[in-house]
Specification:
With 426 residues, this protein is an alpha/beta fold. The protein has helices spanning 2-6, 9-17, 19-34, 47-53, 75-92, 104-115, 141-145, 162-172, 190-200, 212-216, 253-260, 270-284, 286-308, 336-345, 373-377, 385-397, 402-418, and strands at residues 36-37, 64-65, 68-69, 96-98, 121-125, 147-151, 176-179, 203-207, 229-233, 244-248, 312-313, 322-326, 348-349, 351-353, 367-371. The protein is built from 17 helices and 15 strands. The strands form four sheets. Strands 4-10-9-8-7-5-6 form a seven-stranded mixed β-sheet, sandwiched between helices. The two termini are 12 Å apart.
Length: 426
């Protein structure tokens, strides 16, 4: 059955010892295999990454860094973490790397802890214009502990407003400027950020959580040569395990390492570090570059197809793996919240998202965010993108007709069956 196909012999043990959890794991595998995964921040890791995650490294405490641990018995852990560090430095051309952050959020908080004092002024992208929770949201530690000022996107073109950013930088003289986004569909060239940071003597932090795989594969400009610090997650376009990573100039190495441990984390998750190392090796292979470029081609094709269906794309399109879709021209009554729920019923997974200057609340929204990393990992290409766009439109047009929504769900399952996730036997 499905359990042997994917989870292997250990799964039979889990089924016997904890049938409740085993059943839900199977349901989740089935969901991933039969639904369209269009969440821009998700991907399917390789089997090798999952094998490292399920390893006995989970049993080891390793507070400290390779060669400088607080516990004994870390000879193997040190080798694994050193491999992860050397691979990621090679991948991005970085002077220093810390592979221990548990997540992108903890990576960002460690950078602030290491390079700022509480109350320091920081410039970050406004959340409703595509910034992240950790770029100064008032409900997040970043916004509580530091004095964040927000820049946004222009109203017409919906591109990052560098004039506004420069004006704010000159007015507030921030200690740091944070570049990077969570729902911005356009290229982020590092040069204009660097020019403004230099003009006001600010540190430049670039959060490439979303873009890391595109950067690694040469499908997006690399900010590492320009920025003091670059943070990212390993589980989005990079296709690795859930986790974070910090790259920095050598001059900041000590401050960053101290801010991660003991500053903000205790023992690292070395099974996750091993899985990061596996993902970094995969990303160093020439095939990964082909993959990264295909993600962008697919996003472009999907954006064009959605426009033909009557949706408006924020900024008019995409240069990356994601797009933000304004639903109002398609159907003024169809909120992001409604769209997400209906599409879930139709086997299409994505998330509601604010559009710039959204009249609706972040819990309702006028848009959705769509990304192509997962479907590209499955092997879909430009040919499948108009099919996906028509399925989305069909479900939303007939959202009050349960039979029509169910019909879309079976079409989605048929499409996914042609591009199976985790198809191989152990």
């Amino acid at each position: 059955g499905m359990s042997e196909t994917f989870y292997g012999p250990d799964f039979n043990l889990l089924t016997q010892q904890d049938p409740d959890i085993a059943a839900v794991l199977l349901s989740e595998l089935k969901r991933q295999q039969t639904n369209l995964q269009l969440i821009a921040s998700e991907n399917f890791t390789s089997r090798a990454v999952l094998a490292a995650l399920g390893s006995t490294l989970s049993n080891k405490y390793a507070e400290g860094y390779p060669g400088k641990r607080y516990y004994g018995g870390n000879v193997n852990v040190d080798e694994i973490e050193a491999l992860a560090i050397s691979r990621v430095k090679q991948l991005f051309g970085a002077e220093h790397a810390n592979v221990q952050p548990h997540s992108g959020a903890s990576a960002n908080m460690a950078v602030y802890l290491g390079l700022l004092n509480p109350g320091d002024t920081v410039l970050g992208l406004s959340l409703d214009h595509g910034g992240h929770l950790t770029h100064g949201s008032p409900v997040n530690a970043s916004g509580i502990l530091y004095n964040f000022k927000s820049y946004g996107v222009t109203s017409g073109e919906e591109r990052i407003d560098f004039e506004q950013m420069r004006d704010l930088a000159l007015e507030h003289r921030p200690k740091m400027i944070v570049a990077g986004t969570t729902s911005y569909p356009r290229r982020l060239d590092p040069e204009p950020f660097k020019a403004i940071a230099d003009e006001v003597g600010a540190l430049l932090m670039f959060d490439i959580a979303h873009l890391a795989g595109l950067v690694a594969g040469g499908a997006h400009p690399n900010p590492v040569p320009y920025a003091d610090v670059v943070t990212f997650t390993t589980h989005k376009t990079l296709r690795g395990p859930r986790g974070g990573c910090i790259l920095s100039k050598a001059v900041h190495a000590q401050a960053i390492d101290k801010a991660v441990f003991p500053g903000s984390q205790g023992g690292p998750l070395e099974h996750a570090v091993a899985a990061k190392a596996v993902a970094f090796r995969e990303a160093l292979d020439p095939s990964f570059s082909v993959y990264a470029h295909q993600i962008v081609k697919n996003a472009s094709a999907l954006a064009a197809a959605l426009t033909k269906e009557g949706f408006r794309l924020v900024s008019g399109g995409t240069d990356t793996h994601l797009m933000v879709v304004d639903l109002r021209p398609f159907d003024a009554e169809c909120t992001g919240k409604v769209a997400q729920l209906v599409l879930d019923e139709a086997g299409i997974t994505l998330n509601k998202n604010t559009v710039p200057d959204d009249p609706r609340s972040p819990f309702v929204t006028s848009g959705v965010r769509i990304g192509t990393p997962s479907v590209t990992t499955q092997g879909m290409t430009e040919a499948e993108m108009p099919v996906i766009a028509s399925l989305i439109a069909e479900a939303l047009r007939h959202r009050d007709d349960a039979a029509a929504v169910a019909a879309v769900k079976s079409k989605v399952a048929a499409l996914c069956a042609k591009f199976p996730v985790y198809p191989h036997k152990l």
